[in-house]
Amino acid sequence: MGGFSVVIPVKDGERYLDEVLSAVMREEPDEVLVIDSGSTDGSLEIARRSGANILTIDPASFGHGRTRNLGMERTTGEHVGFLTQDATPCPGWRAAYDEAFGIDPRVGAAFGPHLPRPGTSPMIARELNEFFTAFSPDRRPRVQRAGDPPFLSNVNACYARTCWEEIRFRDIAYAEDQAFGADLLAAGWSKVYQPAAAVLHAHDYPFAEFMRRYFDEYRGLRTSLGHVEQFGLRSTLRHVAGNVAADRRWMAEQGIRGSASVGWTARAAMHHGGRRVFAALGSRAEHLPPAVQRSLAHERRPEADRPAEASGGGPAVAATTPVPARLNRESYEIAARVWSEGEAPLRDVPPGLAERERLRIAMVIPPFQKGSGGHNTLFQILARLERRGHLCTVWLHDYYGAAAYVRPGRLRHDIREYFAPIEGPTYNDFAAWHGTDVVLATGWETVHPILRLPDTHARVYLVNDHEPDFFPASAERSLAEDTYRHGLHCIAASPWLRDLLRDRYGASADAFQLGVDHDVYRPRDIPRQTDSVVYYARYSTPRRVVPIGLMALAELHRRRPGTRITLFGAADPVPTSFPYEHAGVLGGEELSSLYSGATIGLCLSLTNFSLMPKEMLACGLPCVELAGVSAESIFGRDGPLELAPLDPARIADAMQKLLDDRELWARRSEAGIRFVASHTWEHATDEVEAGIRHALKLREQAANVPSPSG
Amino acid sequence: MSAGSDQMSSTDTDPQTEVAALRARVAELERELVEREAWANRAVAEAQQRVYWLDRWGIDLNALMQRPGASQFRAGVRMVRGVYRVFRRTKRRLQG
Fold it and tell me: Closest residue of B to A389, CA-based?
């Protein structure tokens, strides 16, 4: 590929078009494309005469960025020059651009100065001269790189096709060239200011048109670069006075004196003052009513305000709204870092670490609320590990910044108040990370962070539930599944979960049994009702299949209208087709009383078995749970629980059986108390501690560490 | 033959002794590390206990003391406290 193409968007541009095309043709480009968007004057005829290729588009499909992308697509040159219909290239224009692109292979674009046409207002001519001279006072080509001004103007610019293919013009209402300049520099390309690639461009507009053009220009700058023009009375007066003085000097140099000078001075003052006002309004256009925006804007075509049709006839992109960065990182960035950079290496395991009496254990937790069941499990165990002499620390990882305000002192206090009296320190980020023997991940959100933590002998995953099942197809589900595939040794909160992790993910896994606080959950001295059901209706947790449970209760109510039904676990009452008592969210003591006074409990879970059925059983309350999920792995098929398939009628059958058969009820109640008697937090801690030591053993075996005895 | 065997036995023993000694040293250092960390954890936890109310209300004393006038304010409070103590002491003396 090679060659030089020129693209000129045109609409009713007959005033200068002939002159522009003639000058372009003198530069001998390989092709010239005129894109006409509905001219009604003689523009098309002029273009045809010049021998340029013509592409006609629907005026409604015009967009400054979109149409120039179309121009790039419909031309073939390696370098493509863009001009406006009133920019006449000066001799040597094309050669100057060829020279600019020869400076460096990473030059993505070049631009040249706009020279005033004869008769241009002094203030415009002076400003243009100063503006472009500032880019290169010695009039030599200047390469601009990241950190330099993003200025680029499609009045007179040239692009390298390879750069455009990477960047493309943004589909924005105005200032697509400035946006391209910023994007180009940010992407590592450079651009060149080429003083020799000049065009004659500037000419006068009536005052109102000037102001509307400024409004559009600064609205575009806000959209493309986020620039907001500052405005203040004093600064505006200073600005006007300074510029008028400069204009007067320029006029003196150009020989404009006397009454002409006075007249131009007055116009200059109006121009500079008006520009400040319209620039400030333009960069705040989004705060103005649409009707005001329309009346102030020069671009009055519908596409300036509403989505238009794209050149291909498909739906157009609506006007975009700039949104500033609000986060210092994306939510799951740490997971992406694990994927791209890998895991931090583990430290070698010293001989005998697995048997050492006191281990250093760091537990990484996700944010919590009062009553978080999973966190209760974690801290019941951690507090007991501390009592056994292990040095435990707690580290909060907050993916979403929801708990960013929680400082360490408060974090520690809340853990002690809500869950268990831990003794060790807590940290709300990893800034003070100082290594440990074993780091424990405790939820899917905590796994990727611990994989990046250095100075650790082993990483262990305390798995409370199969968390991918908490999400539909989503980033969260994928990330949660990924957590089981990093070779962490898992300690799962039931044999069912352990087997699932082994079978589905090939993870090494141990299991522990959730404990029950028998001081709280025990049969209370409360008269037990003979015909009542309590149901854990936490409908905000989908795995609790509350709609199924409610259908089962509706069926039970139809069969036994006298049965008293109580729902708990949700703050607000859920609408149902049957009457019930709403108990809300309850604490441990209240739950224990509720369980001790009811006839049967209903608690359903599609994933891992939770604490609640065990706590019901500990209070002598027979409980109905789902068959075929996790409950059998703990209680067996014919244990203290009444199991039913995921079928409202069958669940109602199970409840009815327990309510009708007093002998069965008594048998289940006694069996339940007996069964959970051994399920204590001390026992759970034994199992978790054994799992941690097992993980260290596995590390020793993998590293072929000799036994401490030699 | 006998001399050779003696020699071999001597070279076998030395590295083993050295390894055992090094292992003992590693174990000792590890114990020391654990003790130090236990002490540090206790100190951090106690500090966190003390600053709970500051943390609860989101008050960062370090940031607060970096504000202009903070050290002058602190000096002023100290001076007022000193005056108050002198006053209280004098009052106690006068009251016998």
Answer: B38
